[in-house]
Amino acid sequence: MALPEHGMSKDEVMAALQAKRARDVRWQEGRTFGMVYDGGPEVHEVAEAAVRMFLHENALNTLAFPSLGEIQSEVVGACAELFHGAPEASGFMTSGGTESILMAVKAARERGRAERGITAPEMVLPESAHAAFHKAAHYFGVTVHKVPVRPDWRADVDAMADAVNENTVLVVGSAPQYPQGVIDPIAELAELAAGAGANFHTDACMGGMVLPFMELLGHELPPWDFRVPGVTSISADLHKLGYTPKGASVIIHRNKELRRYQTFVFQDWLGGFYASPAMQGTRPAPPMAAAWAVMHHLGIEGYKRLTATTIEAARRMEAGVRAIPGLTVLGEPEAHLLAISVEPGAEDQLDVFAVGDAMLARGWFHDRQKPPDTLHATVSAGNAPVIDDYLADLRACVEEVAGTRLEDRSTNYATLE
Ligand SMILES: *Cc1c(COP(=O)(O)O)cnc(C)c1O
Known about the structure:
By secondary structure, the protein is of the alpha/beta class. The chain folds into 2 domains: 47-296, Aspartate Aminotransferase, domain 2; 301-401, Alpha-Beta Complex (Aspartate Aminotransferase, domain 1). Helix content is 39%, strand content 14%. It starts with 9 loop residues before the first helix and ends in a 16-residue tail after the last helix. Pyridoxal-5'-phosphate binds next to α4.
């Protein structure tokens, strides 16, 4: 494992890296339902050119790199506009959904302390809320009330109301939530938070770059953005259905006063005045520049086109799954996520994880999730051309594994090594 004494040539290095990729999922063929979101060859070209241009820059200090300050404020401004923020809406780019969520929780904790004197902060989450909220609670010392969801997998407003108290600094809903892809009742949840004087965060990490374009395409959706009065912050991942390379998300607050609770400023260091918007110190410029590039290359029209393709593919996939005897889709997902499950009553004859493994052997990758046992699918434009092939293979795999139950029930959304 040690470094070679004598350095390798560029060709040797690249060949060695290429060899390491042999067993990676085949996202380039549209066979991966999550993790990589493929906007097509032109989008790749634009992103790669921007990455190359900004590869060595650092957004730690945007006074040294005003370009990156502009890139950040233009990307955040464009998102604030898409989410119907007023002109005072403001935020930052972050490295991803997790960092955006960490900052939403931190800002809520600080506001609770400053405005309401809360020293033992609590937050109320539906059990569908992303694991990153639990990570934030762990990092920032916030107590979590994790509330069961309704039978339709949406957040249960009454049950969440019962968990709100005088120490509540944050209530959370998702648009849509990750496990089953349904949109929580954001308007009711945000009202609940406002009534308690707490922040409300809409986690639109998945939906932020999809729902605005679905609305423009004429889909009827429940309200989830800054048009809902109690929503104080929104997270949206550009590196998911924004089709930008990994390392790009936004956290947007309703106004600058709320945003102030996110930032960190330190005056008393021998190194000088230190101000930082989020978790990172040194901040890689390539994801920021590539996000700006892809978003401006696609424009509203490009995103409408990709969204139309994605939603058509997701509905075709959903209908196809439901048509296979023994399989179903949980709930009624509004957007581009599906949880594939065994039909109620068929559990003795069919194991959805066995179906997943058989599909993997044919090159199709789903994350396993539970409870309940399901295969996760985040559909994006890159999957659209192969949905019919997928459904044919899925039907064959269901027949192939009927009656098999796997010992291994493990689910890994993420790993340590
Ligand atoms: C992906 C996702 C996150 C976390 O984002 P990362 O970019 O993986 O850190 C949070 N919430 C939802 C709903 C997501 O889909």
